[in-house]
Amino acid sequence: MKKIRMDMIFSHSGDVVSREIDGALIIVPLTSGVGDMEDDLFSMNESGTEIWNMLDGKKTLQEIVEALAQQYQAKPGEIEQDVVGIVAELLKRRMLVEATAA
Amino acid sequence: MAERTYVDEKNISHAPPWKGEGPPAVHLDIELTERCNNACIHCCVNKPAGDKRSLARELDTCAWKDILRQAAGLGVMTVRFTGGEPLLRKDFSELYLFARRLGLKVMLFTNARLITPQIAAMLADVPPLEDIEVSVYGMSRESYEAVSGVDGSYVEFRSGVQCLLDRKIPFVAKGALLPPNKNEMAELAAWATTHTRMDVPPTYVMFFDLRRRRDSAAKNRRIRRLRISPEEGLDILTQHPDRYVKEMSEFFEKYLSPPGDRLFTCGIGPGCVDAYGVFQPCLSLRHPDLTFDLKQGALKEAMGSGFIRLRAMKATNPLYLKRCAHCFLRGFCEQCPAKSWSEHGTLDTPVEYCCRVAHAQARFLGLVMEKERAWEVRDSAERIQNLIRRVAVS
């Protein structure tokens, strides 16, 4: 997999649809092969949901980390680790696409 | 150290992700049409495929999209496209893809006759995320078409199923036990376990409902003639007696107590929108006093105030109050307002056929004696405990 750099920009992939229901983010596969099981859906915890919503095709990962660091007063290194971790997992599951070049 | 994961993959029917009460309903039945390309002898819904009156009244594509949008907005997760035959609608693919792009899972009930390579390709590329349920009316042309009433329907059914198999699209089969196919149960079970995603034999509809719209006395007479006797039904239900008794014992442990005069004991719902945009409490219940025209109001209103009203409804029929209200079998008897409506045109009249079926099963389980009536039993809790103990020991 391509190395994730902090100047990269990502947006939600067309292979999934995200919905927010009663405060919970639910990611619904649209095309085949997104989930391990045919009928499974995906959810994330609160911080994952926040990161998902910031992956909007406009902000770089660095900008997302900075915004979160300001909001939570946590060490940027820790936040960066989480952001890169989530992005890597979402990319693996075809839920994100790179939008840097766009 | 285990790699940290951020995304949970889950089946939300087992583990809902929301913290609060969740949406008002997670499932909605969508009856896209009452028309069908089969004319099954036992069907409680079907209108002819080209029925002009139905075609003129059916919701158009825009209206269906609006309802689907409302459903998604309310948090509905799954819609069931049923009918009639939903694939008869020319805009089926458009509605299917629209629903999926809203993030809805789609459960599809079909006879498979109209599944083409193009439809199968769509279902493979954009999977429904719920089972496709294919009705199988017979394993030979003779038996199938004796039920479907349409020449050439068997070949089309086989062709549609082959399209699903070619694209490896998972589906399950369900049967309807009728005189023309009653000797084919083993054959269907063998076929289903090798061709579908099923590892258990298909379920059968056998205690047939009368016409939901109460629209044809002649068809109702035919359906009554096709119903198997409670004893025949029991023979089929108890083909694996140990498994049946165990399942029933577990069921009785959770649910059995007389319901009193509360009319809706089913949990109500999930709610259904019929082909003409009328919301009804469930697929079967079309009593005009309990429906809500979505051309006059929103789905949210129908689901909210409508369901609240139903929960408060009480039975008033003296016969129901004497029998069903005091019957400890009521939880597994199929008596319900929808059955009462289709059989009698009321919401609270005991349906004798359901009563006989429930009593036949209860006798087998040792819960009632010969000629004993369950609503007169005073030691039902003790009898249920005896059954549970018996199963635990065995």
What's the main sheet of chain A like? Answer: 3 strands, antiparallel
* Terminal residue distance of chain A: 20 Å
Binned strand content of chain B: 5-15%
Order of helices and strands of chain A: EEEEHEHHE
What is the N-to-C order of secondary-structure elements of chain B (H for helix, E for strand)?
Answer: EEEEHHEHEHEHHEHEHHHEEEHHHHH
Global Rg of chain B:
22 Å
- What is the β-strand count of chain B? 12
Quote the distance from N terminus to C terminus of chain B.
Answer: 46 Å
Largest sheet of chain B: 9 strands, mixed
Report Rg of chain A.
13 Å
In the sheet with the most strands of chain B, the strands line up as: 9-8-7-6-5-2-10-11-12
Shape, principal axes of CA atoms of chain A: globular
Structural class of chain B: alpha/beta
Report on the structure:
The complex is a heterodimer of chains A (102) and B (394). Chain A is an alpha+beta fold. Chain A is built from 3 helices and 6 strands, in the order ββββαβααβ. Chain A has a 3-stranded antiparallel beta sheet with strand order 5-1-6. The model of chain A has no long low-confidence stretch (mean pLDDT 88). Chain B is of the alpha/beta class and 394 residues long. Chain B contains 15 helices and 12 strands. Chain B has a 9-stranded mixed beta sheet with strand order 9-8-7-6-5-2-10-11-12, with helices on one face. A two-stranded parallel sheet of chain B has the order 3-4. In chain B, helix 2 runs parallel beside helix 3 (92-101) and helix 9 (230-237) packs across helix 14 (352-364). The N and C termini of chain B lie far apart (46 Å). Chains A and B meet through strand 2, strand 3, strand 4 and helix 3 of A and strand 1 and strand 7 of B.
